[in-house]
Design a protein that fits this description.
Elements (H helix, E strand, L loop, with lengths): L6 H10 L21 E2 L10 H17 L3 H4 L9 H11 L6 E3 L3 H12 L8 E5 L4 H13 L4 H4 E4 L10 H11 L3 E7 L11 H10 L3 E5 L18 E4 L14 E4 L42 H17 L1 H22 L4 E2 L12 E4 L6 H11 L2 E2 L1 E3 L3 E4 L8 H17 L2
Helix pairs in contact: 1-13, 2-10, 4-10, 5-6, 8-9, 11-13, 12-13
């Protein structure tokens, strides 16, 4: 697509956008004087679908009217509540319905899956992650290693980008596994790296991991609802995610996980993973529900799962292929505008559309403290992104609710902030 840095052009794209009506179905934030803000922070917390309020109120009303009877007689009965989310999550994950379940939170799910899949034995004791991984993932992995009496300083391997680059290539993962794969028990890799916005070829990584005889696990917090996924077909062993970013389910919303149907490893259990038909007999023996549902520990938090019902309906209506096409166009427009209006910044996210999702990560060069001053100036102009130490602003135009005019306004505001903060 050939872009132009004008409001007329941005509005033309918005008028031609077949998904433009979805924007009106979200709560768009406003400033203290009621002025509309440009929200480019859905990679951190997605906006609220307007329908979420009604669905949460239905659950509150059913609680008020039915109390304990709501488990079986609410409009969406609470006992099988996760089944309301299964189909939508499976579609976004590229999974079979029995391979996914909404439960717990991202890091709790990661611990549960690592407890099952990380089986150090002999020389094969290492876990491979990317250098600069999201801190919660690193903490979880290090603690899992230590829990088994091993030393994280030896068993935790962090693969760094080449000198002078921010990006770890699939080739470097393959090269490490070819050389040292016999020492690796499990690889935990992001679908999209949270700081750089780099998206990975998960099928290629899974194949390399399996060739080396290791387990392939993925953190999809920045991928699900953002990038096309095919977890079943690439034969990923497991994956975890949250639903408060691109899935727009609200702060602290329920997480989710994928376990490939070929797996039935011993794992930590709780009563909600017991088969539904006999769960309430409270027997001493655990009989797991089929598939990923058997990994549930506790009954789902209904009030934090309810907004996801609203959001997944929007994804189903819009269709991920259409959302992906618009996402590529939005991020491409933002890239074009940054090159044109803010040429002194450094884009650390890959420029190839297949190697990124919605998010562009922008390094602010210059004297110490300039980046944070630029970010504060950007925020004061009504542009909501986020700041990552020591020098990076992350902006993500989301196809469900952002417009091309939003992207233009954000880029123009960044250019102004850069001029005022030399």
């Amino acid at each position: 697509m050939t872009y132009e840095p004008t409001l007329e052009f941005a509005r033309h794209l918005d008028e031609a956008d077949p998904l433009r009506g979805f924007r009106e179905r979200f709560a768009l934030p406003r400033g203290p004087r009621g002025e509309p803000l440009v929200y480019l922070c859905g990679h951190s917390l997605g906006l609220m679908p307007l329908a979420a309020r009604g669905i949460v109120m239905q659950e509150l009303d059913d609680w008020a009217a039915l109390a304990v009877l709501g488990h079986e007689h609410a409009r969406r009965p609470w006992i099988p509540y996760h089944e309301n989310l299964r189909g939508g999550l499976a579609a976004l994950a590229g999974a079979r319905p029995g391979e996914v379940v909404a439960m717990s939170s991202l890091t709790v799910n990661l611990h549960l899956l690592l407890a099952a899949f990380y089986r150090p034995s002999g020389a094969r004791r290492r876990i491979l992650i990317e250098a600069g991984a999201f801190s919660s993932d690193r903490h979880a992995v290090a603690s899992q290693i230590a829990w088994r009496g091993l030393d994280p300083r030896e068993a935790l391997v962090e693969l760094s980008p080449p000198v002078g680059s921010d990006l770890v290539t699939e080739e470097s993962i393959e090269a490490y596994l070819e050389e040292r794969g016999a020492e690796v028990a499990l690889v935990l890799w992001p679908g999209v790296q949270y700081r750089t916005g780099q998206a990975f070829d998960l099928g290629r990584i899974a194949r390399a991991v399996h060739r080396a005889g290791c387990v392939a696990g993925f953190d999809l917090a920045h991928s699900i609802g953002n990038m096309p996924l095919a977890l079943h077909d690439i034969e990923a062993d497991f994956a975890v995610w949250c639903s408060y970013k691109y899935l727009n389910a609200g702060p602290g919303a329920i997480g989710g996980c994928f376990v490939h149907e070929r797996h039935e490893p011993p794992h930590l259990t709780g009563w909600w993973g017991h088969e539904r038909a006999t769960r309430f007999r409270m027997g001493a023996q655990f009989h797991p529900a089929a598939g990923a549902a058997g990994w549930q520990i506790s009954n789902p938090p209904i009030l934090s799962a309810a907004p996801l019902v609203a959001s997944l309906a929007l994804f189903g209506e819009a269709g991920l292929p259409s959302l992906r096409r618009k996402s590529v166009a939005l991020s491409g427009y933002l890239e074009f505008l940054l090159d044109r209006l803010a040429p002194d910044v450094e884009l650390i996210t890959p420029r190839a559309a297949d190697s990124r999702g919605c998010q562009l990560s922008i390094r602010i060069t210059g004297p110490h403290g300039r980046g944070e001053r630029v970010f504060d100036a950007l925020t004061s102009r009504g542009i909501i992104g986020d700041w990552r130490e020591p020098d990076t602003i992350r902006l993500a135009p989301i196809p469900l609710y952002n417009s091309f005019a939003d992207v233009l306004r954000g880029a123009e505001a960044l250019a102004q902030a850069l001029r005022l903060q030399p």
